[in-house]
Design brief:
879 residues, mainly alpha, single chain
Length: 879
């Protein structure tokens, strides 16, 4: 299967339909042959051979023989047929064939055949001919280095008149004037797909390493991945020097070099920076020493940089060196460098335990790009068994923190084999629980944590507390209130040291367990302080999650700032949703989903699908929403399934299908998700004629809003109360004061989505009260906000309500030739925002905002900012 070649395949398919000629060009292993392999149907295929490159008309003889038999091939057996007649004969042959002709390895065509085929190709109509040839100067494998054998008995290369040598220095056969399509490197995404299709179990960091090393070359991807051991595939022994069976053409060139050039080449292959000064200094060489390698087409020098022309050239340089030479190269680089880079080279050169290097690696691990590898290599080099176990445990913790569950599990198994210490084994249990959780078994993971905590309750109470705290969280995800309560009981029984930083967490998480078991929202009060607590990255992640429970997206965003990893992406996506940044939330969720897939985090994949379904519901993408929501519900985890039901409920609510929405929203059985979704269920209850069900929901949500102290939650409480009062009280003015109060509260908080929902609900109320002018003002505000958020179905509802007020259905701003960003700026300026405020909202510079307004004025026929409000009120907004 082809990956990342859609455009090239489309070009080829078009050619096969219309007829004509095309020359595919690219470096060795770039995928030219694979593209030819993708051609289906009646195909005639031949390939050039170096053995026959000096034989006039050898390729045409083979082509004619395959097309029309021996009689036709005799046309090209004369010693020197006239080139023009040969071209005409080739053209006639191809026209009669009425088939697709594919010529691979066209760089090995004999000159006469190439000229005749090019002559015919320029005149072809209705028949397609495709050549695949190496770029000029690219290394060309000999026949014995290629899967296509030559013909026995024919002369070998080196015959006088050969159009190009096996080193690729001569001219490419004459296909000038024909349309060309050069195959460039695969994108990183396509390269990753190639590796996934070949090895579905590659660890993410290994995949990234190979993708970077291969440089988008499919052959390099194949060779480098094939050379991995089973342990390397799951991420052990990183950073590693990727080895591979390099094509012999590279080996031959390297072997032809003198010793100084080979040494410099090996040093360059061992250094990842491409810094020419470093390479020359470590190799004890100058530019003259590396010139032969440059002339041989193995390396490219540019300014102060050195790079291998082909990714497999680097692998060949390492493979041709002995173990002693590779060690020497790393030691030389270590002497030429400083800091962590020097440490890594010393670690790569070590052939046995070396405590000094192990200590250096451990010290550098916390700041390393790959801390897991640093700790793991430090463990391998440790002389003392205790140090080895401690460093291996640090590697396992780092892998777990980065979401590398498979790698962490393998490291944990190593720790368990090395130690019988109860505290160490409790840590092992904790990391195994993380793996179970990410694989989609939060309940099982939580019970494992409680079991693992019991042996260290007296000897290490803080360690036991951390495990029990985690068990409460896992019980929450599983919807297993008994598990959460059991963990809370354990937490309350622990005798933590006086002044322990865990004391407030014990209180807060025990309160969460009480809430999950049916306790009032006031049980969550102690989470507010924990959500604002500062600390290292893991503590900030936990704090951000607690902030989300409390509905504080602003605080969650602040806590998660600068943090990376799949968990951080998930939390950040939720936070963006809470503050009404839907487009950003969708991007974070999509990236988190991609990473979770790569890491094999089944639970997180399902959870992010549920969140993405909710965003799709708000955007009005019904098909995507239903597909994602169904997958989330099928995941079987309580939080995830509840997200799926919430998404379907919001979709139906926005589409005015209130009874169906009520059914989906009523199916939410996770207490925290049910709180967050309560406003939607209350609205669905009121609009579907089940207002009596809304009272208890509203009371619980109002209690939570009071505990969270977030203005948006107070505003939504007022909105829901206004809707319920309007439904139950026949007085004309019932509910209006609550709507007004809700809008005042919204001004204190930046949740644009709920602010727009309140504008819409109040506008609907005003229209039904026959106050159309006032209704239009509210509905236009709702419409502008929904448009800015990209929430199409809600925008449609607002537009329909506007039409019902008699508002003329004028064209949207985009019809007036404004770009989407100009339209956004105009709308915000019309609301009275300054350039600086608009810039902050849209993440632009004030100068860019001014430029957008400058261009928008003549399009709208206005000359001042004051006229914008009238313009934007007189037109709708686009979808």
């Amino acid at each position: 299967m082809l990956f990342g070649r859609d455009a090239e395949k489309a070009r080829l398919d078009q050619l096969l339909t219309t007829g004509g000629a095309l020359v595919l060009r690219g470096e060795l292993g770039i995928g030219k042959t694979a593209l030819l392999d993708s051609v289906e149907g009646d195909v005639l295929r031949v390939a050039g051979h170096e053995d026959e490159a000096a034989m006039p008309y050898a390729a045409l003889h083979l082509l004619a023989n395959r097309m029309e038999g021996e009689q036709a091939s005799r046309l090209f057996e004369t010693a020197e047929p006239d080139p023009f007649r040969a071209g005409l004969a080739t053209l006639a042959l191809l026209r009669r064939a009425k088939t697709v002709c594919l010529i691979d390895d066209a760089h090995w065509l004999d000159d006469q055949s190439a000229r005749a085929l090019a002559f015919a190709a320029r005149r072809l109509e209705g028949t397609a001919i495709v050549f695949a040839a190496l770029d000029e100067g690219s290394p060309r494998p000999r026949p014995e280095e290629s899967p296509r054998p030559g013909l026995e008995g024919w002369p070998r290369s080196g015959v006088k008149g050969l159009p190009g040598s096996s080193l690729g220095g001569g001219p490419v056969p004459r296909l000038e004037g024909l349309p060309e399509l050069r195959l460039g490197p695969l994108s990183d995404e396509a390269a990753a797909q190639v590796l996934d299709a070949r090895f579905g179990d590659l660890a993410r960091q290994v995949r990234e390493l190979i993708v970077e090393e291969a440089g988008g070359n499919p052959l390099a991807l194949r060779e480098l991945s094939d050379a991995l051991t089973a342990e390397q595939r799951v991420g052990r022994f990183l950073p590693m020097e990727l080895d591979a069976e390099a094509p012999a053409v590279f080996v031959r060139r390297i072997r032809a070099l003198a010793s100084p050039a080979r040494r410099a080449l090996l040093v360059a292959a061992s250094d990842s920076t491409g810094d020419l000064d470093v390479v020359l200094r470590a190799a004890g060489a100058d530019l003259a020493a590396v010139a032969p390698a440059e002339r041989a087409g193995l390396i490219r020098l540019s300014g102060r940089a050195i790079a291998f022309v082909h990714p497999l050239g680097r692998a060949a340089a390492r493979r041709e060196a002995t173990a002693a030479e590779r060690v020497e190269a790393h030691l030389a680089l270590a002497e030429s460098l400083e800091g962590s880079r020097a440490t890594w080279h010393r670690a790569a050169a070590a052939t046995g335990p070396d405590e000094s290097v192990a200590a250096e690696l451990e010290a550098a691990a916390s700041e390393a790009a790959d801390p897991v590898s640093a700790y793991e290599r430090a463990a391998e080099l440790s002389e003392d068994p205790g140090d080895r176990t401690r460093r291996l445990k640090a590697a396992a913790f780092a892998a777990t923190a980065l979401g590398q569950v498979r790698r962490g599990t393998a490291l944990v198994d190593g720790v368990a084999r090395l130690s019988a210490d109860p505290s160490m084994l409790a840590d092992v249990t904790r990391m195994r629980a993380v793996a179970l959780f990410e694989k989609g078994s939060p309940g099982e993971a939580g019970r494992l944590l409680i079991e693992g905590a019991v042996p260290v309750v007296d000897s290490a109470p803080e360690q036991a507390a951390i495990m029990a705290l985690q068990a409460v969280r896992y019980g929450s995800h599983a919807g297993d209130t008994a598990l959460a309560q059991e963990a809370a009981v354990l937490l309350r029984s622990l005798r933590l040291p006086e002044g322990s930083a865990l004391v407030p967490f014990v209180s807060g998480m025990a309160g969460l367990a009480d809430f999950l078991a049916g306790g009032p929202p006031t049980s969550l009060a102690s989470l507010r302080g924990l959500a604002a607590a500062d600390g290292p990255a893991p503590q900030r992640l936990t704090a951000a999650s607690l902030a989300l429970i409390m509905g504080d997206g602003v605080l969650a965003e602040r806590q998660i700032e600068g943090l990376e990893g799949v968990y951080a992406l998930e939390v950040r996506a939720h936070a963006k949703l809470f503050v009404g940044k839907h487009a950003e939330a969708a991007r974070e969720a999509a990236e988190g989903l991609r990473m979770a897939h790569e890491l094999g985090h089944d639970r997180r994949v399902a959870h992010l699908k549920g969140l993405s379904a909710l965003l799709a519901a708000m955007e009005g993408d019904e098909k995507r929403c239903r597909g994602l929501a169904e997958e989330a519900i099928a995941g079987g985890v309580a939080t995830t399934a509840s997200l799926g039901h919430w998404a379907l409920g919001v979709l139906e609510l926005a589409l005015d299908r209130y009874e169906t929405a009520f059914g989906h929203l009523s199916a939410i059985d996770h207490p925290v998700v049910a709180l967050h979704a309560a406003p939607d269920l209350i609205e669905a209850s009121v609009r579907s004629g089940a207002a009596e069900a809304a009272g208890p929901l509203l009371e619980r949500f109002a209690q939570w809003a009071e505990v969270t102290a977030r203005p948006w939650a107070s505003a939504v409480t007022d909105r829901c109360m206004a809707m319920l009062v309007t439904e139950l009280d026949a007085r004309p003015d019932s509910g209006e004061e609550l709507f007004v109060q809700a809008l005042r509260e919204h001004e204190k908080d930046g949740n644009l989505y709920h602010h727009a929902r309140t504008h819409l609900a109040y506008g609907e109320w005003l229209r039904r009260a026959k106050r159309r002018g006032e209704a239009r003002e509210q509905l236009r505000s709702a419409l502008a906000a929904f448009h800015e958020l990209g929430t199409r179905p809600w925008a449609d509802r607002a537009r329909a309500e506007l039409a019902a007020t008699g508002d003329p259905a004028l064209p949207p701003l985009d019809v007036l030739d404004l770009t989407p960003q100009e339209a956004q700026v105009v709308r915000l300026a019309a609301q009275g925002l300054s350039n600086r405020e608009i810039a902050a909202r849209l993440r632009l510079s004030p100068r860019t905002v001014g430029s957008h307004l400058y261009r928008a004025y003549p399009k709208l026929g206005v000359s001042s900012r004051g006229q914008l409000r009238e313009i934007t009120q007189s037109v709708g907004t686009d979808d």
